[in-house]
Amino acid sequence: MLKKSLSALAIGAFLTMAYPALAGETVGPGGEKATPSSELVLSDAEAAKLKEGKYTAALLWHTSSDFVNAVTAGAKDEFARLGIEVVAQTDAGFDAAKQKSDVETILAKKPSAILALPLDPVTSAEAFKPAVASGVKIVLLSNKPKDFVQGKDYVTIVTDDLFQMGKHAADALAASLGKKGKIAWIYHDASYYVTNQRDNAFKATIESDYPDIKIVASQGISDPARAEDIAQALILQHPDLDGIYVTWSEPAEGVISALRAAGNTHTKVVTLDLSEPIGLDMIKGGNVTAIAADKAYELGRAMADAAGYGLLGKPAPAFVVAPVLTVTKDNVAQGWKDSLHRDAPQSILDAIK
Fold it and tell me: Among 77, 142, 71, which residue's Cα sits nearest to residue 297?
């Protein structure tokens, strides 16, 4: 949905998924209408019923990161309220074959529910079939296995409010530029609905709401390691850039390095997802002006409640999105807490002082 050098949203380079046309609001991978996570609620009576069931849950993650830790904390706290014991947690390390093995390992523990981020739509469709057949209630984070049907194969998909992520970034960059100037748009060059929607929302917001801001350069990126080289070329071609949008925080770190190497203190950068280097640059008055972030802890809470819906036989919305916040120099400490449910890194707290 930040947060993390590699996140749920940074795996687009590994995936091939169709995504719907941008329509001014977030939609799911199959065009599903978004429901705010705040609407996913289980009453005390429903929680009591779940406690009576003595259910268990397993967390099947794609990697380990600050983002995953925050999602896990939100899920575990809510599962504790619901009396659902977490019996296993795995980390696939962005390896689809490892994730398939993780599914088999987890099923041996016979959990009642599984929370998971499937890595590859095709591979995960095969990997999760045994879980579906066993009757486990599956709640998905961001991605969907190919041909899986909501309400039959899985309970729901939970992710960021993707359009708002891009819009918040556009509004923040526009504010820092006085609503005028020349900018570059560095987008994720892969067919992955999460990053595609976020990137396109930024572009659409600039073009519709800020007529005096011109996107004078557009550049796709699939490998974050190439970000610095891409930024160096952009700076050479457009030395008068006022701002740069970067698809997520890891490639943004490369863009910042390129700007520093060029002695460029003028160009403002906005990106998505929290990271320590990006936060530090912002606090120290560098190029970064703002970061759009999701509420990762809330993603976990919503996923746990969705599992409860499945176990109770309560119909769940098909596609659920968590809120977005804009993190700036003025609110970075609180922003870290609101997004990741923990304190900002010590280096950032020290820099604030």
Answer: 71
Burial level of 256, CB count in 10 A (0-12/13-18/19+)?
buried
What superfamily would CATH give domain 10-161+296-322?
Response regulator (3.40.50.2300)
Rg (CA), the chain: 20
Looking at residue 129, its amino acid is K
Please state whether 305 falls in left (phi above 0), alpha (psi between -120 and 50) or beta. alpha
Query: Euclidean distance between the first and final Cα of the chain, in Å?
Result: 30
Residue written as token pair 């819009």:
167
- Whether 169 contacts 148, CB under 8 Å: no
How far apart, in whole angstroms, are the C-alpha atoms of residue 250 and residue 255?
9
Q: Which residue has the higher pLDDT, 2 or 52?
A: 52
What pLDDT does 23 receive? 57
**pTM for the whole structure:** 0.88
> pLDDT by residue (tens digit) across 214-226?
999 999 999 999 9
pLDDT reading at 7 higher than 80: no
CA 164 to each of CA 185, 246, 325, 352: distance values in angstroms, whole numbers, following the listed order: 17, 15, 9, 27
Instruction: Give the other-Cβ count within 10 Å of 163's Cβ.
Output: 24
CB 291 within 8 A of CB 326: yes
| 162-294+327-345 belongs to CATH 3.40.50.720 | no
- Domain boundaries of the chain, sorted by first residue: 10-161+296-322, 162-294+327-345
Contact 141, 305 (CB under 8 A): no
Nearest Cα neighbor of 235 from 245, 244, 222, 248 is 244
Residue type, 229: D
